[in-house]
Amino acid sequence: MKRLPALVVAAALVAAACSYQPLDDPGLGELGLTTVVYAADGSILAEWHAEEDRILVEYSEL
């Protein structure tokens, strides 16, 4: 009797693992954005520029 709940949980885990599908890539890595690394105090430690020097801005900032 004690093995039945464990068997049910194991079967549910196997079923969930078999139906797992990875999430789609949102595509933000394909924009060629500049990566900015900030320190704890908010100052910029480093900037890594991609193929093009881009940053995301709001439409109102254009």
Written overview of the protein:
The chain has 62 residues and is of the alpha+beta class. The chain has a domain of 34 residues. Helix content is 26%, strand content 15%. The chain has 1 helix and 2 strands. It has a two-stranded antiparallel sheet. Strand 1 and strand 2 form a beta hairpin. The longest helix is centred in the N-terminal third of the chain and has 16 residues. It is elongated, with a radius of gyration of 23 Å. The N and C termini lie far apart (67 Å).
Protein traits:
alpha+beta, 2 strands
What's the short story on this structure?
The chain has a domain at 29-62. With 62 residues, it is an alpha+beta fold. The chain is 26% helix and 15% strand.
Structural class: alpha+beta
Run of helices and strands: HEE
Largest sheet: 2 strands, antiparallel
Give the N-to-C terminal Cα separation.
67 Å
Overall, the morphology is elongated
Task: Give the rounded overall mean pLDDT.
Answer: 82
- For the secondary structure, the number of strands is 2
Q: Radius of gyration, Cα only, in angstroms?
A: 23 Å
Strand content is 5-15%
Strand order of the largest sheet: 1-2
Number of helices: 1
Helix content: 25-40%
Low-confidence stretches are none
Topology:
Elements: H1 3-18, E1 35-38, E2 44-48
Antiparallel strand pairs: 1-2
